[in-house]
Design a protein that fits this description.
Number of strands: 14
Helix content: 40-55%
Radius of gyration: 28 Å
Length: about 450
């Protein structure tokens, strides 16, 4: 009966009692099978829904009481009217205590998992990225864009391309209800570094009907771009400071800082962004240590002493080294190469975290996630996307050359900046998002696959 209510009664030859205890047990086993059969990942994400969590708690509690009742009934039936012996009573207490412990642990684990999701949805991490306003650094607006050297890409000529490559403010077709798009943000709060920077920016988009997915990295030094509400920013406003510039009042926007960042990157890339997810870089280090490090295949030797020295080839990185791996841009390449490394590590961590081997580390991972991740995505709906995430294959692309170029430092006051060639971005946007792209249908814009900066 400890293993399965009703078995003890059946062993004693009490068929009626066995049936009474066995039928509800069979119903529970059918319910449990249906939950597990849809996948443990679906079951886990379902626990982020309050109504499902309440039902889970009720089932765990009721079945725990039912198991305890079955065990005690078996002992009582086996006594056949005589008094309890000390060893029998002790064994009964131990078994009931074990049942209580097992079901308490199951309920507590479910609550810990749910509480992590609540913390992630309630975190106001990006508000921390906005220190006290500083009037000494004021973004300036440019009246016209900086001239771009001659460009070309397959399927279009310079003469056929629009003079203003920016997309319209609204799509030509109705929004695709099957597409979900995230802005993934790495926020730098580490000691000794500027805590006002969104250090990495990636756009992940999935069409749930076709399962086509993409991951696009936007260079953090991008400047000299047009804002979605009209004006242009000059060289001294980079995309990675846009959020804090708005929240600090140094740049006037019709929206909050995070909404401005979402809309602006969506505007430049040509795909409306639905949600954001941000992670503290320091938390990123701790989470990688919690999963035992990550395996990478370094394509370009990094010689960035004392920050990082890493030869080409396979390597196993702990949290601190992985952080350096995704941040180094000296001697090992530019922001474009490190953006590729960020995508690589992100995909690797996702595989590690969702593996069965990480079950013992779940309490640590949940605690770290709750403290270091923030998102406005309603996690209680995550169960609807789990299977999609497993089957989707992400095409990765970094908006380095030829999508970006560096203007002369003479024109930027010596500041290292990057400018997007939006005619080329438009061709990539249509390739990745099809008719969902705001660039779709513009004259001279044809779909062209990603042209990697590392090729």
């Amino acid at each position: 009966s400890f293993v399965l209510p009703g078995l003890g009664q059946l062993t004693l030859g009490r068929r009626r009692s066995a049936l009474v205890f066995g039928l509800p047990t069979a119903a529970f086993l059918v319910w449990a099978y249906l939950q597990v059969d849809q996948g443990l990942d679906v079951l886990a994400t379902s626990l982020w829904d309050e109504s499902y969590l309440a039902a889970f708690f009720a089932v765990v509690l009721v079945f725990g009481l039912w198991r305890a009742a079955a065990v005690l009934h078996t002992f009582y039936a086996g006594l056949r009217g005589r008094r309890w012996r000390v060893l029998e009573a002790a064994l009964a207490i131990v078994l009931v205590g074990a049942i209580a412990t097992m079901h308490t642990v199951a309920a507590a684990g479910a609550w810990l998992w749910y509480d992590m999701a609540v913390q992630v949805n309630q975190n106001d991490m990006l508000a921390q990225a906005s220190p006290t306003p500083s009037p000494t650094v004021t973004p300036t607006l440019a009246r016209t864009p900086t001239a771009r050297p001659q460009y070309s890409f397959p399927g279009a000529t310079a003469a056929a391309l629009p003079s203003n490559p920016y997309p319209p403010s609204s799509p030509s077709a109705p929004p695709n209800k099957n597409r979900i798009t995230f802005l993934l943000i790495g926020v730098d709060f580490m000691e000794g570094r500027s805590h006002s920077l969104t250090d990495s920016l990636m756009v992940a988009s999935v069409d749930t009907s076709t399962r086509k997915a993409s991951l696009v990295s936007v260079p953090r030094d991008t400047s000299g771009f047009q804002l979605y509400w009209g004006p242009w920013v000059s060289y001294n406003t980079k995309i990675n400071t846009l959020l804090t510039s708005v929240d600090n009042g140094r740049l006037k926007s019709p929206d909050s800082g995070i909404v401005t960042l979402e809309k602006e990157i969506g505007f430049l890339l040509g795909i409306p962004i639905d949600y954001y997810a941000a992670i503290d870089i320091d938390g990123f280090v701790k989470m990688i240590d919690a999963v035992g490090g990550v395996d990478v295949n370094n394509k370009h030797a990094i010689n960035d002493p004392p920050f990082l020295i890493l030869p080409t080839g396979p390597a196993h990185l702990d949290g601190d080294t992985a952080m350096r791996y995704v941040r180094s841009r000296e001697h090992g390449g530019s922001d474009y190469l490190r953006a590729e490394r960020q995508q690589e590590v992100l995909k690797t961590v996702e595989k590690y975290v969702t593996s069965a081997a990480m079950i013992p580390q779940l309490p640590t991972l949940l605690s770290l996630a709750g403290a270091n991740i923030s998102t406005n995505f309603p996690l209680k709906t995550a169960k609807n996307y789990v299977k999609l995430g497993q089957k989707a294959v992400f095409d990765g692309c970094v908006l380095g050359p030829p999508y970006s170029w560096h203007p002369s430092s003479d024109s930027t006051g010596g500041l290292w900046t990057s400018r997007l060639d939006l005619n080329l971005v438009a061709s990539l946007s249509v390739q990745l998002y099809g008719q969902d792209s705001l660039y779709y249908g513009q004259a001279g814009v044809k779909p062209v696959p990603c042209q990697s900066s590392s090729d």
